[in-house]
Amino acid sequence: MKIKLNSVMVDNQDKALKFYTEVLKFQKSKDIPVGEFRWITVISPEGHPDVELALEPNANPAAKTFQEELFRQGIPLTAFEVDDIETEYKRLTRLGVAFRTPPTAAGPITIAVFADTCGNLIQIYQPPKK
């Protein structure tokens, strides 16, 4: 069993694709029309090329409520690992990314939390250096 695909619900697929590719520097993998929406996936140039993140349209009322409540409560939807959190924090801040939590020690890791402009909080984390 492998993890090959994970999803984030987004309020606008075009805005999400722009943010996840231009700001977070993921690369578009698929962009296929599916009715009124699109099947859009991105990959990390630093990760395994067949592990994708789907930018899912948040058209389901239950999912929208879940997304809004996670955001309101300050709970990140997902997390991405970074090699140097201070450098990434500075880079993203320069690009206008709104952080809820600057780099903060959380036990053996350092975390930071930002809004993805599409309705989600995303956590980045740096594991301990070996």
CATH homologous superfamily annotation: 2,3-Dihydroxybiphenyl 1,2-Dioxygenase, domain 1
Secondary structure tally, helices:
3
Q: How many structural domains?
A: 1
The helix/strand series, from N terminus to C terminus, equals: EHEEEHEHEEE
Class based on secondary structure composition and strand pairing: alpha/beta
Distance between the termini: 28 Å
What does this structure look like?
The protein is α/β, with parallel strands linked by helices and 130 residues long. It has one domain (5-126): 2,3-Dihydroxybiphenyl 1,2-Dioxygenase, domain 1. The chain is 26% helix and 40% strand. It has helices at 13-23, 61-73, 85-94; strands at residues 5-10, 27-34, 37-43, 52-57, 78-81, 99-106, 109-115, 121-126. Strand 3 (37-43) and strand 4 form a beta hairpin. The longest helix has 13 residues, at 61-73. It starts with a strand and ends with a strand.
Task: Describe the SSE topology.
Blueprint: E1 5-10, H1 13-23, E2 27-34, E3 37-43, E4 52-57, H2 61-73, E5 78-81, H3 85-94, E6 99-106, E7 109-115, E8 121-126
Parallel strand pairs: 1-4, 5-8
Antiparallel strand pairs: 2-3, 3-4, 6-7, 7-8
